[in-house]
Amino acid sequence: MKLGGIEAGGTKFVLAIGDEYGGIFEKTVIPTEHPEITVPKVIAFFEGKGIERLGLGGFGPIDINQNSKSYGQIQNTPKTDWVGYPLGAALKDSLGVEVVIDTDVNVAAMSEAKWGNAKDVDSCLYITVGTGIGAGAYFHGQTLKGLSHPEMGHIKVARHPDDTYKGTCPYHYDCLEGIAAGPSLEKRWGKKGHELAENDKVWEMEAFYLAQALTNYIYILSPERIIMGGGVMKQQQLFPLVRHKVLEMLNEYVSSPHLTEAEIDQYIVPPGLTDEAGIKGALYLAAT
Amino acid sequence: MKLGGIEAGGTKFVLAIGDEYGGIFEKTVIPTEHPEITVPKVIAFFEGKGIERLGLGGFGPIDINQNSKSYGQIQNTPKTDWVGYPLGAALKDSLGVEVVIDTDVNVAAMSEAKWGNAKDVDSCLYITVGTGIGAGAYFHGQTLKGLSHPEMGHIKVARHPDDTYKGTCPYHYDCLEGIAAGPSLEKRWGKKGHELAENDKVWEMEAFYLAQALTNYIYILSPERIIMGGGVMKQQQLFPLVRHKVLEMLNEYVSSPHLTEAEIDQYIVPPGLTDEAGIKGALYLAAT
Lengths: 288, 288
Description:
homodimer, about 290 residues, alpha/beta, Nucleotidyltransferase, domain 5, 5-stranded mixed β-sheet, about 30% helix, magnesium (chains A, B), ROK_cs (chains A, B), fructokinase (chains A, B), zinc (chains A, B)
C-alpha cells in the first residue's frame, strides 16, 4: 500500500512516502515553525502522490483518542503556537485521506518492535532524550494509551545532591524533562551537550536522572527491552553509566537475567533503526 | 465452569470455588505461614471439589511467564520462607488441574475492569496500600506484564521535607512501599494506622507519597481509572487528600476532564468489589 508518514517533532517534521513493511520511497525534512508555515509545506509534499492513508507520530500532548471530537488536536504544550491546533483534521481535510495518529515515541517503539532492536520480544519502551524527553511503549501488539497518552518525560525524579539548577519545565520545573533534557544541560553547564563530552561530572549527573526514570519504567511497565534514542543519547558514554546505575537502583529486586551486569547491555540499547524509528513507525501506523 | 481461585497475599490466602462470571460458591481464608503449613491447607480445600482449572493471583515477585521453567515460582521477597517456592507447580501436581498465574494486583485490576469500578472503561490501575504496596494494570483486555510483572510499589519517591524516617524496604529503604505502606506508618509514628486517624499530619504526609506515585502512574501508563484498595485506604480521609495532591502535582499538564477538581472523585476511587476484587479476579483468570 502506498502510504504517507509524518514524524512531527518539536524541532522538525520528517515526511515520507513508503509502505507498511518499512520501505521508504521518498523523504524530506522541514523545520517545525508556526503551524501556518509548516502545515502548508506538509500538504504540498503529499499532494498528488497518491497515498492511500497517512500515519502521524506527533509530539505531545496530542489527542490520540479516535472517539474524541478533538482527535489529532495539539493540547497544552510549551510550544504555544501549536496549542489547540487541529493537526489531524487539517491534514485529513486537505489531503482527503484517513489520518491515523499516535505519539512520536509510541510509533518509534512500535517500529523498533517490528524491525529494530526489539523485534525478538513482545514489548519494549522507547525513550528519546533530546530537546525534550518522551517515551512510548509497545506491548503485545498495541501502543500504550488510555485516558490520554503517556507523558513519561514529566515524572518527578529525586534531585542529584550536587545539582542546584532549578529546571526548565514550565509546568513542573524539575521533572525529568526539566532537569535532564538537552536544554537543561546547556543551561546548567553553560555549554551544549556535545561540547561537554569530556566532563565526566555532566554525564554522571545525567545518568543519575535517566537511570531513575528507567528504574521507574521497569517497576511500572516491565518492558522486555528499553531503547534510548534522541540527540543527548548520541553521547555514547551515557549508555554504560545509565546501565550501571539502573542495576544499582534496582538492587537485584527484579529477577531477570537481563538485569545483571552480564546482560544489561542487551537490555538497554540504542535504536536499531537509528534515526528512522519514528518515520517508519508513522508509515506502519498508517496501515493500522 | 467450576473453577478454583486463590488470592495469595502476604498475610492471608483467600480460597474460593466459583465461576468465571464473578460467582462464588464457597470461600475460606487461611493465614500465610510457612509454605509447608499453608500449601497443604490450600490443597485440602480444593481436593475432591471437581474444579476444572485454578487461577492464582499471587504476591510478588512471582514468575508469571508461562514459557518459563520456573512459572509460578516465588522469587526474591522479604518473606524469605517463600523464596524459590514452586507454588504453581506444587498446586498443579497435587490437584491435577491447569494453574494460571498472575499477580494479586493484576487480577484485582482485571476484576474491577470486569465487574467493579472500572467496568465502563478499557483500562485501569489497581493499587493496594496495606502491609505492602503493589499495583496492577489492565489495558484493553490484558494485564500488564513483560520482562517480569510490574513492581509499582518499589518506585522511588521524593521525600517529604518533614520526614526523617529511613524507610522499611530491605531492598531500597525509602521506596514508596518502604516509606508509605502500613508498617512504615506504624514505625514512623509509633502507632498503627487506625490509631492515627485524627492526626492530620500523618495523612498529609501519606497523601504526599501516594499522590507522587499516582502522578507517575498517570504519566507512564495513563489509565482511564485508578482504584485504591488495601488496609491503609480504609482511612477514607486519604481519598480527598490524594486527589487534591495529584491535581497539584500534575499542574494541568495532562488534558482530561477527569483530571479536574470537578471529576477527579470519579477518577481516583475505592474498589467496587470491596474486598473481593482479588478472589473474583483469580477465578476469572482460571478461565483464561
